[in-house]
Protein 1
Amino acid sequence: TIKRPLNEEIIATHNAKHSAAIDADYAALAAKLARVGINIDAVKAKVASFAVAIPSWGTATGGTRFGRFPIPGEPTNVQERLTDCAVVQQLCRVTPGVSTHFPWDNTSDPAAMREEAESLGLYFDAVNSNTFQDQPGQAETYKFGSLSAAAKASREQAIAHNIDCIEIGKKLGSKALTVWVGDGTNFPGQQSFRDSFDRYLDSSAAIYAALPSDWLMLIEHKFFEPAFYSTVIADWGVNLMAANALGAKARCLVDLGHHAPNVNVEQIVSMLDRVGKLGGFHFNDSKYGDDDLDAGAINPHRLFLIFNELVEAELRAPKEFAPAYMIDESHNLTDPAESLLSAAEAIVCAYARALLVDRVALKAHRESNDVLMAFKTLRAAYNIDVSPLVAKARVDAGGAADPVAALRESGWRKAKAAERKSEVNKAAGII
Ligand code: AOS
Ligand code: ZN
Ligand code: ZN
């Protein structure tokens, strides 16, 4: 049996309060969808099989380069982060995977960590390496780059770290390594674009060679930050060049915040899928840049359009379709568990809406160049309030009718505030 951190009775009581409303809203939506020939139970079954991974580090407050505002009761080590992942999963049931980050999740015993996760009903998704900051005591600096650095010793250290991540990941049961590097320049002339990319490719080939046969290497591009004049893996074009050069196990990862403003991300998704290189996503939202705001908070329509491409891609090749989904947010103002619940809901709702698109009609409108009706076909699905469907799927799977409300009713964070050695408690002299 799975160890669930929250008292199941609190969730049952919460659900009992909401069940009549959920059932009535679900029946009304079922009738509405039936009129256009959609069987709601079939859509619910698809929604029930959806999963998006939580980044272990996303369970604690993030911050910006200007500061961080820790909250009482937030997790302070990898065990506590796993427990909070289990809390989120217990309530929403679409986040059974945990994505780790090394050395942030450092553990002397990955096998025990895997057992712990499994006992909580969780598994480990992609492993993220970190060569964008120097760790205390490390021999070489990444100040001037890691996998692409001019200094061979820095490159070798970065390669070794990524291979370490693969070794830990094998023990955790992961099947992918996500590589994002901060490598780039702040000044014109600082480095040769071409030589830096060549060095990146050489280093990445050494990592690629260490990948187990059933693993993927997910390459994450980003056009700025921390480097502000150029980055080595700046956009999906360079990303695709790298993935093609490395081989079949290398794929491109799309972080929604890593593109220039107004770039058509859904088109990038479609093109990467076209060439079999769509590796996965880091979901978040943004207004200006890599803002790492909660998924769907700013532009839920863009999220829907991305899922529209994903649903089409899956229909076209159901067997090969398996992009890795992860939430990548920085929670500066909210309780991270609440934000993760709210983001997971936005993501699964975008998916559910995309499932409702009338694809036969859309195809016909495209073929006859009926522009407005093609647009209205998409918009009709976007306009449907799928929350009763998503809530029903969640409650059927054992989750909460209203996850954020149930979390608050459980008093989880308050209870943890008394137990965990948070920075807030340390500052207040309580521990
Ligand atoms: C950085 O901008 C990227 O989004 C990476 O995915 C990064 O490793 C992650 O956000 C953790 O800092
Ligand atoms: Zn990311
Ligand atoms: Zn980012």
Protein 2
Amino acid sequence: LSAEEFRRLGHRVVDWVADYWARLESFPVRAAVAPGEVMAKLPAHPPEEGLDGEAGWEAVFRDLEEVVLPGVTHWQSPSFFAYFPSNASGPAVLGELLSAGLGVQGMLWSTSPAATELETRVLDWLAELMALPASFRSDSGTGGGVIQGTASEAVLVAMVAARDRVRRVLGRDAEWVAYTSTQTHSSVLKAALISGVARDVADSVHLRQLDTDAGYALCPDALERAIREDLAAGRQPFFVCASLGTTSSGAMDPVRSVVEVLGRTGFTASGGWVHVDAAWAGSALVCPEFRALGEGLEGVDSFAFNPHKWLLTNFDCNVFYTRERQALLNALSVMPEYLRNAASASGKVVDYRDWQVPLGRRFRALKLWLVLRHYGARGLRAYLREHVRQAELFAGWVEADARFELAVPRSLSLVCFRLKPLPGEASSDTDARNRHLLERLNASGKAFLTHTVLPGVDGAPSRYVLRLAIGATRTEERHVRAVWEQLGALALS
Ligand code: PLP
């Protein structure tokens, strides 16, 4: 493309995205295509000839409408309440475009100093905005933040750094054991598999997924017992992942008590590492009234959350803070000849490649920078508070309706609820009615929710539960009200 053609097509693409956002409410929220339907509309072989200049792009715009859009689940729809949100915003998308346009690969400070230094500065801003411990900031001299692609990469990096640190403290290898709760995100199991800590998905010796308390939070007593058992059996506890905002129900693990247990058991003295995964809920720390969630973070080794979930920054953008950046370097630094350069050798610069799994890295800080500048702290707080307010409203409607109940107390903007059991009804039948309700709601295309199964506590059966996760950029009270009314109507039929 010539510069002028790129300019004209670029304007059209931005127009297309702006129009897409304006028409979001006209699409069924969940893609209604059968497996293979999108592929069947695409040629089986790559084009031999390129497009016929700018005019040829008409076919691309047509395909976007006819091939791509029908197969898209509209995560940006204001009636998307499934999983956790993955929110995009104008400033973030423009930042993404700038990043692509600059085409920078910022693996080393020297391969684009601005990519590294903007990232460091923006992550220090964010640490300040969230009142995170000073030890996580780059100016602590020992800690700092880095943008990873996903929370899964963050926990893998933390686990590998943890094992390396304990190995150095002990001066030997060991039979490693990591701890989570049954409610911890599956990315920790994946990290254990990738790092070789767990032999397979069923390896409950090396990754202990502990039963929770009745609120689905990690139980410090159970953690203490498990660590002592493992030490007595000659195994080496080295890593704990606590969650702020579990995926199923938004439970908050008691970070401060976890840290205390770890101090008592010798875990900390042997170099053991606590990571806090706050993938979704972490963004809430931008609001002072939710900061109690972060109690005890000054005692943890790393903390990660996803602005790509609930801080207006499009996928992918995970922010990972550690108070000991040297531990990442110890575990992950490799220096082949072809990367050697004077800046790295001077020791005066940060090379973020040593803080992550891949070598190469995109200039993701641009989108976060634009989000923080565009909305400011005040705008971000207002955005988060509005979602929490909407969830409070919804939870109130659930509680006031005799047919429904909250499955657990609301957590920030996540409401887990279900149709109540009928008198004498078997739990499997209650589950089936809830599953049926969810299927009909999602098939309507008017909204999209997903489910979870919460384990039974104290001998009670497990429960199939609907999750309303509010967090799409354009969700207003009217959308939440509409989905509630629809649920009510479907529950009657
Ligand atoms: N941790 C928690 C608590 C999550 O809810 C999720 C995803 O929803 C993840 C980790 C994984 O996130 P990512 O896709 O960034 O790896």
Protein 3
Amino acid sequence: MSLDKHIEKVLLSAEVIAERVAQLGSEITSEFSGDSDPPVFVGVATGACLFLADLVRRIDLPISIDFIRADSYGSGTVSNGSPRISFDLKLDITNKHVVLVEDIVDTGNTVSCLIEHMTLKKASSVSVCTFLDKPSRRKVYFKLVGDGKFYSGFECPDEFVVGYGMDFAEQYRNLPYIGVLKPEYYM
Ligand code: 5GP
Ligand code: MG
Ligand code: MG
């Protein structure tokens, strides 16, 4: 696509992504297949949109899907550190298993705020499935709820990435791969 001209390097191609998402899908399917109560997949808007759409099509269980929004980022590349829920769930998750679907866990602020929120809503377990993980940048060490597990698609180097749902100033979410922008576009 002609948008490719904005990208300095591709870190994860669409093919590599598809393969890993399929693996995650079967892993999560096996984890919950003995359970009579299938989980609620909660996509964290907007960044998790593409990952959620691909992931749930690889889950072979009668799951439900909902969305939540937690805002902490301005339009730049640095978090302001204190996320708040700006759009809440429609479904009642009391006594439900929740799988929080995230684009990336960076400092951990957002995911820890969301886990706390799901705890207050009395989810019976909270797992986190993040497409990317930047463990080198972690500031907050979150605890999963109940039998909750942490699933991660790929470890991400300490670079600001875009694509596959992830933005810079609300753009580039529609790229089908993960890449780093050319410096002249970070403006
Ligand atoms: P945290 O609260 O863990 O610091 O940040 C989580 C959010 O920051 C992510 O959901 C994502 O929206 C944003 N973020 C963190 N690192 C990156 C990155 O490399 N690229 C983009 N586009 N967003 C990021
Ligand atoms: Mg996010
Ligand atoms: Mg963002």
